[in-house]
Specification:
It is built from nine helices and 15 strands. By secondary structure, it is an alpha/beta fold. The two termini are about 35 Å apart.
């Protein structure tokens, strides 16, 4: 992490003409500036809301669109603060996001995780700008995308594409003119210089389809939601590595002689380090359990 870490004072970072990365090293938000409108893809967590607002103000920008890529805690709990600061912005989510956030089992977990991530940043001397959330984000009145939607920002088009495999209500973004892709978590969790952990939490088959879409799009820049962008050859290599790691992980799970619980714990122990320790152990253990479950569910025949 030391070699890849980006200090907070480097943000906002210009990625391309009219494209900036906001937030911090751990939670990345991407601002696209058109001639007429602007769009913020990703919302992060409550602890970084004030940082993001300050970064937007430094650019003299009030976003016209605020887009949550999916309803996991690290991609949705910053929404309320941003929506309150920018009441004229249109909030965009995908179908399934509202139902996920409002599920009785999800509510306490969202609140717990947001609180833990705030404390984790504080332990790293990144002071949260506000207390962690006490209520789930309100998605009433949001624009809900069922499949795809194009936002004409003025000589810049941002395509929002509903994808599957990682989370309910999952969106990725594409700037087709520049071959730039906002992948969120659809490439897995990136440990810079150390590889990926695949995140097929809802289904293997559709997760692989999303990976294939990203590969076929062949982006010049990939913007994940964590640990910074991949540019040029690094983008191509990152996609290739993500696909290989995903396939290797599925094969390992399906061929393992360990019990499901033992295998999940093995995956957890191998990956709960560095950037992943910003999340609760229970959360990442549950992620490992889901990986084992979904891999064993798939009927794909080449394993």
């Amino acid at each position: 992490m030391k070699n890849s870490y980006i200090p907070e004072n480097k943000f906002p970072i210009k990625i391309d003409n009219n494209l900036f990365m906001l937030g911090n090293y751990f939670f990345n938000l991407f601002l696209t500036i058109g001639n007429k409108q602007t769009a913020l893809f990703e919302v992060g967590i409550s602890a970084i809301v004030d940082t993001v607002i300050n970064q937007l103000e430094s650019l003299d920008i009030s976003p016209d669109y605020i887009i949550s890529s999916h309803p996991h805690s690290d991609h949705i709990t910053g929404l309320a603060g941003l929506a309150k600061r920018y009441p004229n912005a249109q909030i965009i989510v995908a179908t399934g996001a509202k139902e996920f956030v409002e599920h009785p089992k999800a509510v306490p977990l969202l609140l717990k995780e947001d609180n833990f991530m705030s404390k984790s940043l504080s332990n790293l001397s990144i002071k949260p700008g506000r207390p962690s959330i006490q209520d789930i984000p309100d998605l009433h009145g949001s624009i809900v995308i069922k499949n795809n939607k194009s936002l004409d920002l003025g000589e810049t088009t941002l395509d929002l594409i509903k994808v599957q495999g990682h989370s309910p209500g999952n969106l990725i973004g594409v700037l087709p003119q520049k071959k730039i892709l906002f992948s969120s978590d659809s490439l897995g969790f990136h440990f810079p210089g150390r590889g990926y952990l695949p995140l097929f939490f809802t289904q293997v088959d559709t997760y692989l389809s999303t990976l294939n879409f990203i590969k076929e799009f062949n982006p010049s820049i990939v913007c994940p939601a964590h640990q910074g962008p991949l540019m040029g050859k690094a983008a191509t290599a990152g996609i290739k590595t993500s696909i290989k790691t995903t396939m290797d992980t599925i094969k390992r799970i399906k061929r393992s002689t360990l019990s499901d619980d033992a295998l999940a714990m093995d995956i957890f122990e191998q990956n709960y380090k560095d950037e992943f320790t910003l999340y609760t152990k229970d959360n990442i253990k549950n992620c490992a359990v889901l990986l084992v479950k979904r891999a064993k569910e798939t009927r794909l025949g080449f394993f």
